[in-house]
Design goal:
By secondary structure, the protein is of the alpha/beta class. The chain has a domain of 90 residues: 2-Layer Sandwich (Nucleotidyltransferase, domain 5), CATH 3.30.420. The chain is 30% helix and 14% strand. The C terminus is likely disordered. This is Biopolymer transport protein ExbD.
């Protein structure tokens, strides 16, 4: 007569399949996460259009020239005086020869400031047609 207690089998947890599931979840989360780079630290309200901006946007990186609601000008997030804008653009172009620019202006920006920015662009050797103004598409309609 055997009086020793019977040994229970140790339950086994299938770790290999759990690791496989974790790897698949990790790949899914990495693939679905969007990584955004803030273009600038300037807070501006872009004008909206109901008809423009519907075309497919080309995903290219451009250095922004921003005009905020107080008519202050920023080149790549750094404040620049209007009188020194052409020199700043020229030095930026010399540092990065293949650079592309874009104009971001607040809805309350004065037309006179925009014309002066365009003059500075021409003085720095850029064509106005090569510097697009980004227009936000209206959410309604």
């Amino acid at each position: 007569m055997d009086l020793r207690p019977k040994r229970r089998p140790v339950p086994m947890i299938p770790i290999v399949s759990l690791i496989d599931i974790m790897v698949i979840l990790l790949i899914f989360f990495i693939a679905t996460t969007t990584f955004k780079k803030d273009k600038t630290q300037v807070k501006i309200t872009l004008p909206e259009s109901k008809t423009l901006g519907g075309e497919a946007q080309v995903a290219e990186t451009r250095v922004p020239i921003s005009i905020d609601e107080k008519q202050k000008i920023f080149l790549d997030g750094q404040p620049v005086e209007l009188e020194n804008l052409a020199e700043a653009i020229t030095s930026l172009k010399a540092a990065k020869p293949g650079i592309k620019l874009e104009l971001q202006a607040d809805t309350t920006s004065a037309l006179g400031v925009l014309v002066k920015v365009w003059d500075a662009l021409r003085e720095a050797g850029f064509s106005i047609n090569d510097v697009p103004a980004r227009i936000q598409r209206a959410s309604g309609g």
